[in-house]
Amino acid sequence: MTTPYPAVRPGELHLWWLTVPPAGTGTETAARLLDPQQRERAARLNRPLHRHRKIMAHAGLRVLLAGHLGTRPCEVRLRRAACPVCGGPHGRPYAAGGHGLEFSMAHAGDGVLYAFARGPVGVDVESGAVTARTARTVAGWLPAAQRRTLDALPEPERLRAFLGCWVRTEAYLKGIGTGLAHGVGAAENASADPAWHLVDLAVPEGFTAAAAVSDRTLSAVAGSSPARLRICTSELPSASVIGAAEPARTREGRGMRDTDPGRRAVPRETPDEDQDPLLDELRTAVGRPPRALVAEIASWPAPREFAAPGADEPAGTGQAAADAGGADAGGADAGIRLTPRPRTPH
C-alpha cells in the first residue's frame, strides 16, 4: 500500500513536483506500475531518454493517485472522459473510483508537475530548453498585438513571455478536456472565460508553469467574494516512485524484461529535434513529424491575447514552501484571492 497523502478538499489545489532521475535509473522497475496501454505508448517513443521520462512521469501519477485513493499504484484504473468537441474517448483523464478527485499532469525535460483538485483542473509546464526558433514559429499564430509585444522584447525576455502565454493556453485546454488534439481554437477566450481562472505557478528555476482552475473547484468556498483558492505544494521524491514499484517487481520477477520500453534502438535525429521539448510535445499531440508542424500550426485558430496580471486573473500564486520530505502537502495556508469575473447574461 502506498503512503496516504492529505485529502484534497474543496477550494484547494494540491501541486506535486517530481524531478526525474537520470536516464536508466529505475526505468524497468517503474514501468511495472503502468498498465499495458501505457507501456505500449511508452514503447512507441524512439528515444530512451524520452521513454524514461514518460515512464517515470506516469508511474509518479499512479503513486500519487494510489495514496489518495487508498490502493496500490498498479491497481489504479485510469479512464478518459468524452472529448467535449467531438465526443471521442480522449477527454480529461480520471481515475475509476476517484469520487470527484480530478487531476492533471504535465512534464517537460526532467520536471513533472501534478495537480489535484475537487473540480476540473489543468496544468502545463515547459522548460527553458525550448529554442527561440520554435518560439518564433509557434508565436506566428498568436494575435497581432501579442506578436508585436513579443517582437519588441529582447530575445531572452521574448522567450519567457512566449512560454508564459503557452502554458496558460495548454493548461486551459487540458482543463476543458480538449487538449491539443483540436488545436488551440478552444482557448481563444480563455482569459475572459468566467468559469475558469488562470494561475501562474512557482516552479523550479528553468521551468514555466500555469494552472487553469474551474469555478467548480471553488464552489464550496465561494460564499464570500472574492473567492479564495488554497494552494499546497510538495515534492515527490523519485526514490519513492521506484520504491513503490519494487513489490510489483518481486511479484512479476523477470516477466517484463522482454517488453521493457527502454530497450529499443534509436534512429539518428537532428540536434533541433533532440533538444526541443515543445516541438516534441506538439509532434506527439498532432501526430505529425516536425517538418509538417508549421503547416499544422498555421491552420489552428489564433488564441485571444491574455489579460495582463491584475486585470481578470490573479496577480500572484501565493505558493506554499514545499516540504523537503515531500510527504506533507498541508503547509501554511497559501491562498490566493480570485476576483470573480462578470458572467455574460444568457
What are the key terms here?
346 residues, alpha+beta, Ribosomal Protein L22, Chain A, five-stranded mixed beta sheet, three-stranded antiparallel beta sheet, 10 strands, 33% helix, globular
Explain what you see:
This protein has helices spanning 27-31, 36-43, 48-69, 132-139, 144-151, 155-176, 215-218, 238-252, 271-275, 277-286, 293-298; strands at 12-19, 78-80, 93-95, 102-108, 111-117, 121-127, 196-201, 207-214, 227-235, 335-338. The chain is of the alpha+beta class and 346 residues long. The chain has a single domain, classed as 4'-phosphopantetheinyl transferase domain (Ribosomal Protein L22, Chain A), CATH 3.90.470. A five-stranded mixed β-sheet has the order 4-5-1-9-10, with helices on one face. It has a three-stranded antiparallel β-sheet with strand order 6-8-7. A two-stranded antiparallel ribbon has the order 2-3. A hairpin with a 2-residue loop joins strand 4 (102-108) and strand 5 (111-117). Helix 2 runs antiparallel to helix 3 and helix 3 crosses helix 8 (238-252). The longest helix is centred in the N-terminal third of the chain and has 22 residues, at 48-69. The protein is globular. It starts with 11 loop residues before the first strand and ends in an 8-residue tail after the last strand. The model is unreliable at 253-274, 303-334 and 339-346 (pLDDT under 50).
